[in-house]
């Protein structure tokens, strides 16, 4: 009996050791998530997962920034700063006029196929490019699609993924929320809008030595640039609807041949509103609900 | 031998089963991370951690949105959409003029204590409040500080935390990056600027029944609003510097008595530039480096 025990033990000990090994490995994985750098992450992960996680991984990094965005190398000279100075009267008028203009902006999903001058698109994107960014990394890429075939491919990818999301990825909560949002799989504007602007955030950059360079606050920076872009579009009478195609980032990135350090943040179909365009009768919060003075 | 085997087997089988159970449990943990709601997260967590993690937790949720931002309840009526229509010539001119104005914007850290009309601040924040937001949640709170004592308390908290960050929280990589960023602990503008605008993102809201309501894309939405705010400030000749006070969010939230669902996103000191204001001689990327046309 004892003899049989000692004879058999090695077999089971071996099995147990293997299992313990698996436990340790899988539990270590969990903690590594937070520690490992975005570089390591970018590789070893399937694409859907990557799309879902990368910005969160970086978030942790981003929180560890120095706070000041005005990053500069020590050798950058400082120069006197000049700016327009308006009378208080002008300031009040200019601020009121801009508010009045922007307050007319609405997200419009009915976009006419009427052509829009390219120069205008160039200028609104140049305006967006004046946004501040963490350590002046300017971590944005604006991909402007005017080719009808590419626009249609984008539409196919987005409608396909949304159906998958609906059927497989979402829990009851999401389905209910989506009902509330009256989400519409059919996105005709992706074909009709003369331009689709896909905004990518560069989640990291490259040092001259080829090492990856963290782009602090890349998502906040690119979103700020998009805010300026939306104001610039409204300023010329063009409309758009702010969309974040769910889980399509990687496929669209590949379709548009963008590098792996770029992640899709927003997609904006841009054009004139169609003749019969309607918008939901939504109201905005009064200023007292969004502003507190101390 | 065979008998001994069958006698001993149950013992080891039991051990093996327990180990397999542990493996399954620990691997399930991993997936649960994504499923759990922000509600569960919001509680059980120390504040620094909370500040560092909440937006990442939500990010996962946010990625699970329906894509379209134009959320509306089924009972909201649609109304015809009207908008200004400009000639192509006007569009080109307006887009060029806005770019020229915004391209003069710089992050300025030398801010004069000269008073600024409150009405202007109200208008730029009203302009920021016209931003789109996920499911029209308008998840932003703009806290405007004009009380000198509160401004000074804010300065003390920020300078204190930055020293702690420098000494304890940051690894060599951060210290090196910070050297590169020539970060300055001393933030005089927090005292001198006539206004400090602290922008909070509401990471969740409340349903009438008191249940927490996910604010999809709250960070992107609030950042977009900040982009509009920066454009509106530039439009009236005021300056600011975009800052993200590291780890100060919770202390500032408590100081300003903001609810727990609000997290500090950005702090903008706002005023006229001081006479001797300088800025680093930075250039922006040419449009061809940020724009791709297909």
UniProtKB/TrEMBL annotation, chains A, B:
Transmembrane portions of the chain: 6-24
UniProt biased composition (Acidic residues): 59-73
Gene Ontology CC annotation, any one: plasma membrane
Catalysed reaction, written as an equation: iodide + L-tyrosine + NADP(+) = 3-iodo-L-tyrosine + NADPH; L-tyrosine + chloride + NADP(+) = 3-chloro-L-tyrosine + NADPH; 3-iodo-L-tyrosine + iodide + NADP(+) = 3,5-diiodo-L-tyrosine + NADPH + H(+); bromide + L-tyrosine + NADP(+) = 3-bromo-L-tyrosine + NADPH
Domain Nitroreductase: 103-272
Keyword Methyltransferase: no
Single Gene Ontology BP annotation: tyrosine metabolic process
A single GO molecular function term of this UniProt record: iodotyrosine deiodinase activity
Protein family according to the UniProt entry: Belongs to the nitroreductase family.
PANTHER family: IODOTYROSINE DEIODINASE 1, NADPH NITROREDUCTASE
Protein name per Swiss-Prot or TrEMBL: iodotyrosine deiodinase
Native source species: Eublepharis macularius
Encoding gene (name): IYD
